[in-house]
Structures are given as C-alpha cells and as structure tokens.
Amino acid sequence: MSVAVCVGCGETKEGAFDPCDGCGLDPARGGTDRMLQARSLLLSERFYSEEALKEFGRKIRVGEPVSYDTGQMSQLVEELKTQKLPVISRASPGCSIVTWSMLGMLVLLAAGLAYLYGAWKH
Ligand SMILES: [Zn+2]
User: Fold this and answer.
1) Which of 9, 13, 70, 86 lies in disulfide reach of 22, CB 3.0 to 4.6 Å?
2) Residues within 5 Å of ion ligand 1 by Cβ?
3) Distance from Cα 45 to the centre of ligand 1, integer Å
4) Residue ranges of the domains in the chain?
C-alpha cells in the first residue's frame, strides 16, 4: 500500500492522486493544475519515507510552511506534461480482469464444446 499526504490539509491518504477524505482536495480533478499534482506526487512514498510523510502532514496541519524540492517539482511537472495521469490508467486493471475472465470463460466453453463433440463422435 502506498502512502501519500494531502497537500491541502495534511491528511494521510492512499495514493498521490486520490481525493482527500479530510478536505476533499482531488489533485486528479485539478486538470491542468500541474503544480498541485506535482506537489501531491512529491508528498508520496515514491519520494519520502512514511515517517517523513507524517512529518510533512503534521507541518501542513499546523500551517507550517513546507519546503518542496524545486528541482524535483520541475522534473515532476515535466513528467506530468508528457505522461498520462495515473488516474486514467487506474481504470485498466479492473477492465483487464473483466477481459481475462471473459476470455477464460470462452476457453472453458470451447473446451466443453470440443469435449462434447468428441464424446458425440464416438
Ligand atoms: Zn486534504
């Protein structure tokens, strides 16, 4: 499980692009607000340990300024410009499970038909 911190209120959440339970901030819905998305990505387990993230969360909650690494920020903004948002690809694992179970059923059906056909031939 990945851990991320809401850049709006400091609440811990599961993914950097997940909507926040605490304040409702949803970085994925920010659309073109890449700075918000980059900040959200930066405050995730990809860059910091869980302990460091908790410290970030505490700072945001009490209103202390959080220093975002400007180098990493601009790198992330670039990355977001060229890549599809993770939220778009989030739908695909579910889709592929449906596709694979459909395929599995088809294979079973074909095997069953082949068996029946073989039994009928004899
Ligand atoms: Zn929040």
Assistant:
1) 9
2) 6, 8-9, 11, 20, 22-23, 25
3) 17
4) 4-90, 92-122
d(Cα 67, Cα 22) in Å, to the nearest integer?
22
Residues 4-52 have pLDDT tens digits of 999 999 999 999 999 999 999 999 886 678 899 999 999 999 999 999 9
Distance, CA of 47 to CA of 19 (rounded, Å): 19
User: Alpha helix locations (H) across 6-49?
Assistant: 34-42
Between the CA of 25 and the centroid of ligand 1 the distance, in Å, is 5
Give the Å distance between the CA of 11 and the centre of ligand 1: 5
Q: Quick one: angle between helices 70-82 and 34-42, nearest 10?
A: 120
* 87 touches 28 (CB < 8 A): yes
